[in-house]
Each structure stands twice: as structure tokens, then as C-alpha cells.
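seq as requested:
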Amino acid sequence: MRRKLWILLLAVVLYASMLPSAAQAQGSDVFSQVRNGVVRVLALRGNQEVWTGTAFGVGEAGEPTAVFVTNHHVSAGDDFAGADAVYLLLDDEWNMAQEEGGLEIDPEHAVRCEVIYEPEIYPDYAILRAERIVTERVALPLMPSELAAPGEQIYVLGYPALSDTITDSVTASVDNVTMTTGIISRMTHMNLGDVDTDVIQTDAVINPGNSGGPMVTADGYVIGVNTYGVEGQVVGPDGEVVDTITYDGAIYMAVISDYVISRLNDLIEIGTLGNFTYTLITDRDGETSLLPVILICAAVLICAGAAALVILKKGRKPETVSVSRRTGGSVEAPVTEGRNESGTVSRSPETFGGGGRDVSGTGSDFPKTEPAQEIFPKTEPVRAAFDLRLVGEEGYYAGRRFAVDGTVRIGRQPDKNDLVFPADSQGVSGVHCMVQADGSRALLTDLGSTYGTYLADGTRLEPNRPVVLQIGDSFLLGSEKQRFSLQRRQTKGDEA
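C-alpha cells:
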């Protein structure tokens, strides 16, 4: 009997030892697949301010691209005041003044970018367009966050600033991309201070410098943009501090990919990105899973156990062993407050922003494999906003469509409006009116225009008194010559 138990124990040990190896192999595959799409970002303001972060390419998966995604606080600074120049660093040779302790960007090893989209502040992401196709990097596939589930394995990639302290230089090669791993803790809405964003919470560490990098699934699909780390004091129901969360216990969050997907569609639709196309995963029929490995290991265990029983049976009746499974309880974590740069507790979360060889390969393919078993229930989908469109019906903007993301101001003064009319436009004031997104509808406000803002029925709006616009409603600027309507974003299934 004792010999039999020893053989069974060895089989169990063999089975258990194979699982970490399988997980490590999967992580290694993801890393080698995704890191060629990750690049370091350097931004400058004036002659003194310099900061770094991470970005990733989007476009046809595995192909070179000129379009990259990062955080807004990487492209514009933690104060969101903007940068004078933004560069993608391609390798460790980007700084020609490294040995002298200075900063001089080598154009052979860096590419300057144009920021083609960034919000006023939040959601914290931005879209960059490089001056050339970056053959040293490849695009990664995007996937809506609703196709991912809590408990799912994810990977976080980027260039953490702490790594630079080891090399004593700001590294930027593919070989210096780092990866941390964890699971999706939950899909949630972040509402701290002025942050109002749908995010993915994870236990995967997002270090300073990783901002703007991709959060990817085990398939290599991007579902989020690495953004936040939150630590501080836990406050109980009575308002007293019950615990302090240190850096080691911080929680981490990524802005969901849905914002990026929606904005790319907008930029394509209005012509900013021309004929740009990108890989979007719309289902997970080809999801990679550890299930086949687990089944193989289980088969090995069963075969080993069966062999042990055959060898030791010898006419004796085998003994039975009962195995119980312990289920785990749930722990509800209280909401924590963020920490600002000085280390004091505030309602604003701490934002994290800030090797030598070329990488000219074409990148890895992203094949679809057998579907994984769904172990965890799907959460309610987090829908991306920005489905409203302002459509020019008559006049200067006839036939053109514009996303209503936040506030759209209309008038003749270039420095005060989003939709700018020519200086000689009759009936249009310098600052005429504004349209503000409000869920599935919009608010229209006249801003004291001379010739008035009118609804389709002829009603003239009172200055600074917003009225509701529903889908299909139209309005006029001064006269019938300048007409707009509110519509939903067109999709491939819509009729022309």
C-alpha cells in the first residue's frame, strides 16, 4: 500500500510541476509576440522639461505602422499642458550626447510624431502619427474590453523608469521592453476627483514609465492602455482610516481599449487617417487557452495512476481515497484614495509616466486557435461613448461628419472654436454656439450670437440656455444656409 501511494504521489507531483511550466511558456510566447509593437516615447517642453512613457502600434497586426497609442499624460505631461515635441525612440542609440550627460536626439534612431488626437483631459489616452512608417515596430491587434472577463490572465508591457536606474541610461530597444503579469480583477468605472473613465483593474504591476503601454490578453490582443496606480488610505464607513495601502499593495488600472477603437473609427471617418485600416478582434473563437495543457497533464496523471494500480493490484482489493475540494470565500475591498506626486493623500490618482539594435522583423502572426472554456461569467459590456455625430446638411460643412466628444464649439474665430467657418461667412458669429454630448443625446447652446441659433421649427434659442437635441434633430446658424443635424455614428451594417 505504501509503495502504491508513493507512485501516486509522484504522479501528482509530475502533474503539478507541468502547470507552471505551461503558464511560463504561454507568457514567453505572448512576450515575444507583442514586444515588437511596443516603443518608448520621449516628450519635451521648452529647454528644461523632459519626460518619457510608452506607446504601442496599431494598424494591420504584425505589419509596420505610423500610428501609435499612448496616454494623454505622456503626450502632454502630467499637467496636460502639452509638449513642444514628441518622439518615438527606436533603440538605445537615440541620444548622441549620452556620454557627456546631455540630451541630443539622433534622427536616425528616433522618429518625431504629431499628436492627432488627445482629449481635453480624460479619458487618459492619445493617438500619435509618426513622420514615417516605423519599420522598426509592428502594429498590435485591438479587442473591445467587453470580450475579456474578470479572472482572465493579462500581461502589461512597457519601459519602466526603474529599469533605467540599473542601466544608468534611458533604454529604448525591443530587448529592454519589460512585462509583468496578473489577472483582470474587475471591469469598473473610475470616478476619483475629475477622473471619469472606464478602466480595467488588475494586480499586474504598472510601474512609472509603463504609462501608455499595452495591456494584452494571452492571445496578444490589446484590451487596455496602462495608466494608473492607486495607493493611499482606506476609509471605513464611519470616516476613520482603517488601513494604509503602500506602494507594494497598490492597485493598477488601464484605460479600456474601447475609447481607442471608437476614436480610430472617428479619425478614419472624417479623413484624418485617410485609408488607414487596423486589426480589430470582434470575437474570441480563436482564443488561446491552457485548457489543452491541463487536459494533457490530467491524462498523464490518470495513466500514471492506472499503471500504479495495475502493477500493485496482484489480486488485492484496492483501497479508496476520498478527496474534498475547498471553495474560497469572497473579500470585498473598500475604495482607496489616490496619492499625488508629493506623497500626500488626495482624490486624484497617481499617474505613472515617466535595447542597441534595430528591430526590422515583420513581427509575429496572431493565429486563432481552439476556443477556451469560459470559466468566469462575462461582465456587462462596457460600451464606448462618442457615438454621436454632427452632420453638415447645408452650407460650408455640408456632407461632413464630426464626432461629438465632449464639447464642440462653432464659429468664425480659429482660437475659440472646434468647427471654424471662414471669416466672411454671413450669419455666423465669431463664437456662435456649442454642442455638448449628453449620453444618447446632445445639448445645443447659443453663445450670444448676433444672428441667432435656430431649431428646425424656427424657434430661436435664448443665449446661454441649452436645449436638448435628439438623434435626427437639426439646427441652423443665422439662416437656412448653414444647417447641421445630430446623428449616430455609421457602422458597416448601416445603409448608405
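The chain has two domains: 28-286+335-351, 388-488.
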